[in-house]
Amino acid sequence: MVLILNLITQGAQMMLVLILAPLLLGYTRKLKARLLRRQGPPVLQPYRDLLRLIRKEAVLAENASWLFRSGPYLIFAATWVAAALVPTFAVQLQFSWTADLIALTALIGSARFFLALVGMDVGTSFGGIGSSREMMFASLAEPAMIMIVFTLALLAGSTQLSVIAEFMQTHASLRVSLGLALIALVIVALAENARIPIDNPATHLELTMVHEAMVLEYSARHLAVLEFASALKLLLYLSLIACIFMPWGLAPAGSGLEAYAIGLISYLGKLAVGGFLLALFETSIAKMRVFRVPDFLGIALMLGLLGMLLRFVSRSF
Amino acid sequence: MSAVTLQMACVAGLLGLAILAIVLSGSKFSTAIIYSASLVVSAIALIGSLQWLLANHAIDAGLTLPIGLPWLGAHFRLDALAAFFLVVVNLGGGAASLYGLGYGHHEPTPGRVLPFFPAFLAGMNLVVLADDAFSYLLCWEFMSLVSWALVMAHHREAGNAKAGYVYLVMASFGTLALLLAFGLLAGPAGDYGFVAIRAAQHTSYVAALVLILMLLGAGSKAGLVPLHVWLPLAHPAAPSHVSALMSGVMTKVAIYGFIRVVFDLLGPPTWQGSVVVLFLGSITAVMGILHAMMEKDLKRLLAYSTIENVGIIFVSLGLALAFKANAMPAAAALAMTAALFHVLNHSIFKSLLFFGSGAILTATGERDMEHLGGLIRGMPLTAFTFLAGCMAISALPPLNGFVSEWLIFQAILLSPDLSQLGLKFLVPAVGAMLALSAALAAACFVKAFGVSFLGRPRTTVAAGAQEVDRWSLAAMFILAGLCLLIGIIPAPIIDMLAPVVNALVAERMPVQFANPWLSIVPIAESRSSYNGLLVFLFITISTLAAIEIIHRFASRAVRRAPAWDCGFPDPSPATQYTAGGFAQPIRRVFGPLFDAREDVAMPAPGDTTAARLTIRLRDLTWDVLYAPLAGAIWLAAEHLSHLQFLTIRKYLSLVFALLVILLFVLMLVMLVWS
Lengths: 317, 674
Hints:
The structure holds two protein chains of two kinds.
Chain A: H1 2-35, H2 45-55, E1 58-61, H3 66-85, H4 101-121, H5 125-156, H6 161-171, H7 176-192, H8 211-214, H9 220-245, H10 257-283, H11 293-313
Chain B: H1 3-24, H2 30-55, E1 61-65, E2 74-78, H3 80-103, H4 116-129, H5 133-151, H6 160-186, H7 194-199, H8 204-222, H9 231-237, H10 240-265, H11 271-294, H12 298-325, H13 329-364, H14 375-378, H15 380-393, H16 400-413, H17 421-453, H18 460-463, H19 470-488, H20 491-505, H21 532-553, E3 558-561, H22 579-590, E4 597-601, E5 612-616, H23 620-640, H24 648-673
Antiparallel strand pairs in B: 1-2, 4-5
Helix pairs in contact in B: 1-2, 1-4, 2-3, 3-4, 3-10, 3-13, 3-19, 4-5, 4-10, 5-6, 6-8, 6-9, 8-10, 9-10, 9-12, 10-12, 10-13, 11-12, 11-17, 12-13, 12-17, 13-15, 13-16, 13-19, 13-20, 15-17, 15-19, 16-19
């Protein structure tokens, strides 16, 4: 009975991230538009876009291979699994120990690996440019992420996200290493989600584009699945930042409905705040040149390394 | 028949096959006979060693043959460490034999490969089994020479002669270092048996010297930077299944030598030693993968990536040394398990990738990725297995490469408890280098797969590529299957490694097989755990669910049309990204490490010649270390050459003067000593 309840909670989390992801996207788009004094599309527009896309006929390039057709589903699945393993409203769910933070990073890496590959499948110059730049960004963003994970793990004594969240709930205090990790994680999150100043999610025909260049050849249901995956990824990073640095309200293991409800409401609140900050940040900064990005990501890597080094040298930082 | 006798019988069988290959040379069936017999012998040796390892024998089996030094004999012994490496060697050997059954038929000169192939397998088996310094060195040298012969199999191809020459020089240098190391270990009494060496007490400066010499000797064979220069030349020069053996297995035999001496024979380690190992290992990992990233020759890319993986293994061994020196046995066991796990993993996926490159070579005759492209359409099965290998080597879950990388990261997380400040500063940097190399590996293998298999064919041979034969495919599918199987159920492998690790660091990792859901939990569940099986199941289920839902509710209509490419598709395949183009952003970021130069030759307006972009990269170790060294040797040789033309009188006085000087030096040494 307990097992079934636990499975239901885990399943609820999986569905929750699925439902919320497009909403978060629509919400940030709306906020951005409002900050620019535009009306903006409705908050529910991403759902409509997805529905519209899956009803269309898929157009495949003549030489598209099996990888091109199956890639979107794999990318979606890896991202979804990763997103569902980040605590949203409760910690210590049934399968929370399946993959720790390192494995989570690697799962996102798997999704990126396939995204870069499908970008090269048709053999167009745009796909290549997107894949090549994405992998360059990743080659700096991923080590930065691992450094952040190390800093947090050394602090909490665990790489399990639930344990880290619980630790932050009970032992939270201002620490230098935590501050460094937070800044680094925000930079990584911006890079991973192809947001301004790394990449512009709103452009389609610009030579500096990265993510959009890789999915340029996709249409209809395949594009819908890919768009959904990138929405999930945004949600994933916001949930990650929320559960580590704002762990308030997370329901402990095996608690009742009431605690879950509180957890859910606080999670929605955190997403609202996170989305607002993202929109605010994006409207107040310009996109940077592509070869400035390594410097920007280098900052994240150095901050992560510094945070880890501090933890190695002394336990009080 | 005892286990060690069985292994030695297999070795004898392989040596017999080498002779048989000479006898059969020219026969139509020689390829099939030799490879199938090698396959059978390797399979027997594999099963024997695996059974021995799993049965967890406490008593080591030894065997002494009345050959070698008269007062010593040749000692061979099977212990847990040897048994594990025999598994690695014979798994790789068996797979290469299976692959050779198909691939060998494309060999233009089978007479230059067939005799050496089983002899090479025998040599690697013998190094692992040897139990005294003399047999060890003899077998090591035999392995080096036979592999040199295989590197020179296609000696007329451009560059191969140079590769063979550099390999020979570096192998001799490595053996010299090993010779000195064993000389120091045996001490003035000169007892060369491993049993005596293990029992002897080694002073701290002997131990330090031996560690350095082992890093030079075993490190040069394994490809440790800066001794790696021969590896990207020699490994690709051999036929592909031999490249697989050299990269996947022979580097592991070198690592075996390092582990055997440093962890087993040398006695308690010092933390200073681990600093050297960690430093060299992390430099090796990053430089190896950066060079691989810049490479456009597929086999050279794989060889450079071997250097990276050797670096990762040495980092893990360095961690084990540091933990052992600090009396942290549980952490040392974790690091050692991670190192050995990565040894096994790398031998599997690197063999698989070299087989893939061999398949491409068979189908197109090309190694240069910039002449390939679009192979996924002509060779879907090879593409599938190559993709699995790329994912595994990029450490992506749920495949096997991730598990060992994850274990290494877990070991790094235990290192704040190390007491020395030097290590406290070094280990985080090493962790960062390791993370960097893992991320670059993913970029490198996106490039390798993307440029060779995806996109449009860049040449007519790539367009006409056909799937390879069944034997080759079988070998590749078996290895790809192993990558997945070990990745999703790593617990039995960790348990299998337990006796090996226990023998080396006097501790083992907790039993993993009993964990619920087959998770792996290195220390405690609240600390870290990973479950490859569930990750695999989740990904499979959600992929299938997504496909099912999409196909039920979405339009299923598909139309094929020309590529979109923002409305301006160019029919020429030259407009695709090339290997060099793909690496360009990373080359910009890490350029100073290669002294990268880009020269653009732009024709004047009105001139219709094509513009040219020339990229020059340099291996700085070659320029900084080897070129001056070679120059100095050349200079010395030139200045000394007039000694060749002296009169007898002058020679006699030279000898006399030298004797006097030597005696004088000896006297000084004696004075200092007393």
